[in-house]
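Entry:
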Amino acid sequence: MGFCETEALVLRTYNLAEADKIVVSLTHANGLVRSVARGCRRLKNRFGAALEPFTLLQITYYQKENQELVSLREVEILKSHFYLSSDAETLTGLAYMADLVIEFSPPYQTHEKLFRMVKACLEAVASSPTDLQTVLRYFEIWLLKLEGFLPDIKRCVECHLTFNESKLAFMGSDLVLRCRSCSQGMGTALSNRLHRQLRATQTLAPHVFAEESREVPVKTLRELAELTHSLLGRVLEREPRVRSTFP
């Protein structure tokens, strides 16, 4: 409790009363934080344009004991991505990322790896907006992994056989991967190209993954999108409120 200073990514804002806003941020120090920015909707205010979604900030906030909403005191813009909002598809994709982070992240639980991953994905989109969809696939897979919902993509869940070019992975209705023998050939076989894409997300930075995915067939990218959306739907028990488009 008390004052906290940390890096933060603005995910979403809501109007509150006549002049205030609730700001939902993913912070480096304390995970998902909901704060009140007093007077920020007045023409002259100390926050300026700092509270636009997807802005990277250095913030100071004050939290009282037993209160979920904290009081935002100081902000400093470290990097603005305001220009990305001029493209409707990019804006929808970033809103989708923000929505999933909010869905998956309990408030005030430090998750440094999640913060770094989201920040890196945002930078990848900012540097090459045309790679938006492949960055979103990377984001979905890593969000599932960091929150403990991504099935083992390297080995059969039952016999622990390592998948490779000659050992196909089969995904059953429970959305876990088995070898041909353990699945008895039931379920959907993941193509070698799709499995390579999955494995690549585990070793590459998002901007590198996006660059190397430019030569991947559209069919494989579509298969990857369908797979990640199936996994997300199972965890959420519904479709995400905001949904990215398939490539």
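The chain has two domains: 2-80, 86-236.
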